Amino acid sequence: MRVNPHPLTRWRQPLAAALGTATLALTLGLGAPRSAQATPCPGPALRIEAVAPGVWWIPGAAGDADATNRGAISNLLAVRDGRRLWLLGSGPSPGWGRALRCQLRRRSGLTVTDVIAPWSRPELVLGQTGLRAPRHWAHADVIAAMRARCAHCIERLRLRLGEAAADLDGVQAAIPTQALQGDSGRLGPWRWWRLARSPDTAVTVWALPRAGLIAAHGLLWSDGVPDLRDATLAEFSDALQALAGLETETTRRWLPEQGPWLAPGAPARERDYIEALRRAARAAVDDAALETDPPPALPVRWPQANSDLGRDLRHGLNWQRAWREAEAGAFDSPGESRR
After folding, report:
1. How far is CA 132 from CA 42, 95, 173, in A?
2. N or C: which end of the chain has fewer CB within 10 A?
3. Residues 167-171: contacts with CB within 8 Å, 24+ apart?
């Protein structure tokens, strides 16, 4: 009788085939193989911080856009909700968006599925094309502003970027296709409200109740005083008052446009600065001071306001805007209210 030296050979091949099929299924279920996972993501290494379960903060740089920060100055927020990954804001360029897409996938295990444009700031919305998300959301008024302004805003950003201006070569804004309507609503894990920086510049505020946080792009800053370019002070002050009304006992912190997280009470503190600025400008115009005179000291107790506002470039620009509004208001008829 002939003895088979390898009695297990008959079932090794079927077993190997089955194991191969299982391995393939596991690979497809978990994503790319280890060798692909080790491949570096394109673009710069981004700072991504977990701030709550399934919530990641992508901090923006302080100050204005320049060649060093490449326009990545606005705070972004990523939120996992089931099998969907939401991104609030998308960054300043398609290349930056591609880097974020890859790095968020490795941190969260998900690809970005939904991108929100809170308002029409180019540093906040031009990364959408690089993200390649299936759904892009914005309020209808934000979409209208993007259609009207993005071409001009891209050119303004290109000038600020200097040596990094090539990041925007051939870039066109991806206009969101999913339009929100009305003054407030719910979307996925979010609650949102429409407010405004000026009569023709809408912003949207986004709350994540499960984490006790509210993102107020275009309204709150913590790297210094707020940026009032393209804003009107009366409308901006009204928006801050409305923003303060959204704070509840479960609100633990606010995400500003730029700078670190803010504690409860941030909208009221920033409104104190705006109102002090308006009062000082009206008094200066009434006293026939010159626009070129340095801004007076403001009686505000606000942590974001540097002790020496005279060195804050943004504050100087805010003073010019407040002055011009006060000067225009001085020509109102005597019986007309000057808010």
Report:
1. 15, 11, 13
2. N
3. 167/70, 167/71, 167/92, 167/93, 167/95, 167/96, 168/93, 168/126, 171/93, 171/94, 171/126, 171/129
Residue 21 has pLDDT above 60, yes or no: no
For residues 98 and 44, give the distance between their C-alpha atoms in angstroms, rounded to a whole number: 10
Spatial CA neighbour of 108 closest among 54, 57, 58: 54
pLDDT in tens, 200-248: 999 999 999 999 999 999 999 999 999 999 999 999 999 999 999 999 9
Give the CATH superfamily of 40-181: Ribonuclease Z/Hydroxyacylglutathione hydrolase-like (3.60.15.10)
Mean of the per-residue pLDDT values for the chain? 87
User: How far is C-alpha 246 from the chain's CA centre?
Assistant: 19
- What sign for the dihedral angle of Cα 8, 14, 18, 20? positive
**Alpha-carbon gap, residue 131 to 37, rounded angstroms:** 18
Give the integer Cα–Cα distance in Å for 322 and 317.
9
Phi, psi of 57 (to 5 degrees): -105, 130
- Give the start-to-end residue ranges of the domains of the chain: 40-181, 199-339
Contact indicator for 277, 321 with CB cutoff of 8 Å: no
* 147-156, 294-303, 330-339: least confident range: 330-339
Report for 5-19, 25-39, 314-328: range of highest mean pLDDT = 314-328
Give the pair of three-digit tokens for residue 69: 């920060």
